[in-house]
Amino acid sequence: MAMFSGVVVAISGGCSGTKSEPANSKSGTSKSPAVEAASKQKTADVAVREVLDGLRRREARAIWNFLPPSYRQKMQQAVRDFGTHCEDDSWRPFVTTWQRARKILPTKIAVLASAASSKVEGSPNTAGSVNPSGVVRLLNAIGDSEISSVARIRDIDLAKFFDKTGQEVLTALGEWSSRGSESSDPFEILSQVEVTLVSATGDSAVVRVRWPGQPATEHVFVLVEGHWLPKSIADDWSNGVQSVRNQAIAWADEVRSKPEVWQSQLKTLNRVLDELENAQSVDEIKLAWTCGVRDLQLLLIVDLEPAVPENAGSTEKSTSTKPARIKKPDTEELLPDVK
Questions:
Q1: What angle is formed at CA 214 by the lines to CA 209 and CA 218, rounded to 5 degrees?
Q2: SS3 of 31, please?
Q3: Do residues 193 and 209 touch, judged by C-beta distance below 8 A?
Q4: At what angle do helices 259-278 and 88-117 cross, to 10 degrees?
Q5: CB 3 within 8 Å of CB 241
Q6: pTM for the whole thing?
Q7: Rounded Cα gap, residues 228 and 204, in angstroms
Q8: DSSP 177-206
Q9: H or E element that contains 151
């Protein structure tokens, strides 16, 4: 969900063993009980490093613990509301397709990975650069989770979801990339990021983040219910959660009212799986994989295109309910430049 990505992007500014600079607080500043209690426990930079240390250990629960109680409640209710608007008849075919992927993809990717390992250089942008064990773990984690049933989504406990499924997903992502004998841990870079507390006054703080090879950037954090959050997330949380909730519900309602669109998308997924299942040789599997990735990319592009209302030429306000493209969080600036 977009709200999750905003949180992860915001807090993935870093974690390291670098000592933070001491906060210069004014002796005459009056603090609320919540601020006073929180200040005795941790500072904003420590809160950020705790989350990133958790991510390095594949502990997704650290993200959940980072959020204030009311934020967790709204997030969980949004997911449950989505489940309430979903119908079993619409969701079950997706689950069936996912279970097919669990059976087909690992063996085919293993063939390509084995073929790639026999070469001096693996083939980028193909399944040959993917670790089969990571694929298996990811497919199983999602397939066995609450997402596999509408009834379970409606009664989901996100804390438990993060504990079990979240940890498995992070572990799978850590295993995802395969470079022969060379270790490739996508989370290792987090240990190289410097996080420094620049200043702290009452319920506000400034944290400096420096990625390896990147200039340092400073970010304002605020204290919310005893939890330090990036100010950009705190300011937009209520509207952001409501927006994502509305988009998810609109999608569920659209699937119910226009099932043929959803069925067509699932048909495309199953056709890709059919071609992979029937492929036997390395070349056949590679071709099926390449064509399948292309088809799925096209499917996503078409699905993300904003709907053009029939009265586009009219001055009347559009009543289209198709979810809009999700806005990238402002906190994305915390991430290093991608070259």
A1: 30
A2: coil
A3: yes
A4: 30
A5: yes
A6: 0.73
A7: 9
A8: B-BTTB---TTGGGGG-EEEEEEEETTEEE
A9: helix 150-154
Q: Give per-residue pLDDT as tens, 69-88.
A: 999 999 999 999 999 999 99
Q: Per-residue pLDDT tens for 256-298?
A: 888 998 999 999 999 999 999 999 999 999 999 889 888 888 8
SS3 209: strand
3-class DSSP assignment, residue 130: strand
**What does the DSSP 8-state code read for residue 16?**
-
Q: Taking a C-beta distance cutoff of 8 angstroms, is the pair 326, 209 a contact?
A: no
The pLDDT tens digits of the residues spanning 207-259 come to 999 988 899 999 999 999 999 999 999 999 999 999 999 999 999 999 988 89
**Average pLDDT of 319-335?**
45
In angstroms, the CA 222 to CA 227 distance is 8
Q: Residues for the chain: how many in total?
A: 339
Is residue 204 within 8 Å of 223, Cβ to Cβ?
Answer: yes
Q: H or E segment at 104?
A: helix 88-117
How many Cβ atoms are within 10 Å of 207's Cβ, its own excluded?
28
3-state secondary structure of 286: helix
DSSP class of 339: -
CB 291 within 8 A of CB 276: no
CA triple 19-22-25, angle to 5 deg: 160
pLDDT tens per residue across span 113-138: 888 766 544 444 455 567 788 888 99
Q: For the ranges 15-19, 32-36, 53-57, 85-89, which has the lowest average pLDDT?
A: 15-19
Query: What is the residue type of 42?
Result: K
Token output for 34: 């919540």
Strands (DSSP E) contained in the chain are 194-201, 204-210, 217-224, 227-230
